[in-house]
Amino acid sequence: MTSAAAEGAAARTAPPSSPSPRKSVTGTRRTVAVLFLLPALVLLGALVVYPIGYSLVRSFYDSSGHGFTGFDNYKALFTDDGIRTALKNNVIWVVVAPAVATALGLIFAVLTERVRWGTAFKLVVFMPMAISMLAAGIIFRLVYDQDPDKGVANAVWVGVHDTFAQSSAFPKAHPGRNSPLKPDHGGFLTTSPVHTGQSVALPLVGVAPDRMPDGAKKAAPAPAEPGKVTGTTWQDFTRGKGVGRLGAVDPSEQGYAGMRIEAVKDGKVVAGTKAASDGTFTLPASADGALLRLPASNFKEPYNGVDWLGPSLVTPAVIGAYVWMWAGFAMVLIAAGLAGVPRELLEAARVDGASEWQVFRRITVPLLAPVLAVVAVTLMINVLKIFDLVFIIAPGSSQDDANVLALELYRKGFSEGRPGVASAISVFLLLLVIPVMVFNMRRLRREVRR
Length: 450
Known about the structure:
Elements: H1 2-13, H2 26-58, H3 72-79, H4 81-111, H5 118-126, H6 133-143, H7 152-164, E1 181-184, E2 187-190, E3 198-204, E4 229-235, E5 260-265, E6 268-274, E7 280-283, E8 291-294, H8 314-339, H9 343-351, H10 356-367, H11 369-384, H12 388-393, H13 405-415, H14 419-449
Parallel strand pairs: 3-4
Antiparallel strand pairs: 1-2, 2-8, 4-7, 5-6, 5-8
């Protein structure tokens, strides 16, 4: 009995037997993870790490790649005129393009929230995102064409301008041989004074038949009238060799309808009139002894619009094309953020008497601040490397004025054969992008913690 009790006590005090050892799977999991990550790591190294490292090393060598130049290629970033222009334009891009695109996206997202056709409008605004930069560049190269018959921008601009200031129909008109007119400050003046009871002939040439005013009729000699000065101004040209009489009105010739005629004495205009549809005109007795003048306003060149792709406007024009493409992107992201804004806050503000502008400025915009920051930062990174639009839209004559860093990188590396400087520009671009990316990552981490 004593031995049985001892055995029981020993059994109770003995440590429990350990289970049979099992094989750990930690090593296996690490191996599987490495195998799955290996293709991605290889691609990352080949497409990102190696190019960055090679560009960094190459930026310290000359064009041949054999001579070490130190920081000479980096000095060129601040001494080369083309690179300095590109850097200045990049600053304009970073400041203007993201701000305008984000502001338009915010306006579109807020204004279309309450309308029934808001979805259709958003679809139309977002549609340019489906177009490549190449195609958009070609489209806007045509939009900004100087010729109003081709370029939409100038067609609209010229139409508005001509509504308030109609251009002349006789920009190429000028006196022919043995003409009684002589040049005078852009217009033409008779060589001798005129008198009442006299019919004056003012022939001109140089206007193409298809450019004659719509209301022009066949020219007619003006009969002399007592106490008045009469005359005719017309296109003194008849088709066909040896046809027509010079200085005389022929049956097939047309009058200069609407031509302005002034009577000038001692440098002052004493009378004025406009020619009728057949080119005839009549001046009162005050024109007696005056010289007749066809003022320069008759011959001014037609307004040809704005030189959108000229040196002074090419950068804003290209930025306009970029905003056209990316405003839809900003609108979609901001609309998604707007859908998550608590409606009770907006309704409470309206109940408290806040106007729509106050609700927008003090509630909607602050609540959308994180989304606006994402859009702005994304667009800033995007414009730092803008290349396609500038390369395609800007013509060769003004491409230097529209130059940006990415385009200058291409030109230095391929057109000018200076890969060392091109590599330095690429490293400089990377350094410009890194702070923006770091800021964006930190902001995202703060959002996750909340």
